[in-house]
Amino acid sequence: MRIPAHSVCTAIRDDIVSGVYERGTRLTEELLARRYGVSRVPVREALRTLEAEGFVVTRRHAGACVAEPTEQDAADLLEIRALLEPLAAARAAQRRTEAHLKVLRGLVRLGKERSRHGGTEDLRSLDGWFHETLTQASSSPGLITLLTQLRHKIAWMYVTEPQAAPAQTWSERAAVVDAVARGDAERARTLTVLHAERAAVAHRPRGGVRGGRVRESQHAVNTVSARN
């Protein structure tokens, strides 16, 4: 049974983002294949993809290692997201479907409700779903891919502090959804720019720790090892 490379890629990426593999850790095909219960072929393909995304680097005499981004790399991510998310909102105003609107309105309703009753983890999950849905509503495959990769890397490089005023945050998102529903691309763009600027303040860079220690992973791809 051949496990798809994209499944292996997702598993390795998730473990890098969550800190299972620390920055600078060497990633050998043999170790990864054994860890995830797959052959070396999808691991090799996954490492190439992760290198293209910036999560992995290939070093002379060491092979594939987890990348060690700088503070400037991290700062650039927030700036790039602040440019792309408003574009996604503007396109969503032009291309969204009724299904997208239904989901977005439902998420806003839940977000406002959770804001009144607390629940930091619930709000964090709803935040991710909202931005993912708004991006999907842009119906732009290239933009969706870029923003998805950005969110993975921001989660890797930053700790997001609990929202100081979650009710205000969800009111801002409600206004974005209203603009999207009316097809007002410029207003959707403007509101998203303001929202992104406020959201950036809640991001605190993670401390980078060099070394090869690997914590226990909760992410299995396949329970039965595949052979090359």
Can you walk me through this structure?
It contains 9 helices and 4 strands. The termini are close together. Strand 1 and strand 2 form a beta hairpin. With 228 residues, it is mainly alpha-helical. The strands form 2 sheets. A two-stranded antiparallel sheet has the order 1-2. 65% of the residues lie in helices and 6% in strands.
What's the arrangement of secondary structure elements?
Elements: H1 5-18, H2 29-36, H3 40-53, E1 56-59, E2 63-66, H4 71-95, H5 98-117, H6 120-136, H7 141-157, E3 158-160, H8 166-182, H9 185-200, E4 203-205
Antiparallel strand pairs: 1-2, 3-4
Helix pairs in contact: 1-3, 1-7, 2-3, 4-6, 4-7, 4-8, 4-9, 5-6, 5-8, 8-9
